[in-house]
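Z., the sequence and structure:
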Amino acid sequence: MPVQSADQTQLFSGHGTGTLRLVVFLAIAAALMASDARFGLLGTARHYGAELTRPVYWLASAPKRLGQATVDYAEDRATLLNENRSLREQILLSEAKVARFDTLVSENESLRTLLDARQRLGLKAQLVEIIDIDLDPFRQRLVVNRGTNAGISAGQAVLDGRGLIGQIVDASEHSATVILLTDPGHAVPVRVERTGLRSIAYGTGAADRLLLSHVPFSANLQPGDRLLSSGLGGRFPAGLPVAVITDVKGDRSATFAVAEAKPVAGIEQVKQLLVLEEELSAISADSVESAPDFVGPPQGLAFPPAQSP
């Protein structure tokens, strides 16, 4: 029988010790599991073990969570940008609708005012729309969308819902040019409603200013007096509102003064106007009420310089 070497003896000796150690560990593990299952002795240990390993799990899952957060942020940002863009478009559309509604309301009020004026004054007139405006200190005119094909011709009076605004000076087939009362080359015979004084209101080139030259102080003209068309000259019907006196300038020692007036009509917020029929525009001066003699500059449109009171 062969004799075993020392190395082999040590190997088997070590193998036996390892097996015994394994058996001991298994026995201890079985005892711990049995005691834990029966008495729950390891619950606290597991709890603290889980708490100790929680940071490890948190760090291990950090890359995944960071990646998911980045994806969610990008998706949320894109969604918010799209929603913001959509809301901005809706706001702009709503603002446009509101502005359009306000414009329609304003136009409706303007048309109602024109209709009321036509009925109140008993006038025959046709509605026209402003398509161009030419306003500067030397020229106060506008263009309307009706012409000779609609029966419009030079000389017809034009008014808005508040009063006289000017007259037709030129008409083509599909449009006509209106010279405003404020044009420096225009003049309109007027009558002071309160006193009956007749005069002529001259345009100055300013949209809110007419001048009455050579007005006698004895006429007792006062700010607030209304000026109506007198009908003299047969160009404008009598009784149309023209302007309101705003100031009377001049030296009381002199015979005459210069009065300033503000037109009652204007084109600032007006799109539609009324053009009176020709027979009404050419009304005779005989239909005008009796009033004091006409007072005005003998020639031209020159005004004496206004003096301080």
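Residues 126-287 form a domain with the Thrombin, subunit H fold (CATH 2.40.10.340). The chain is about 40% helix and 25% strand.

Let me know what you think.
H.
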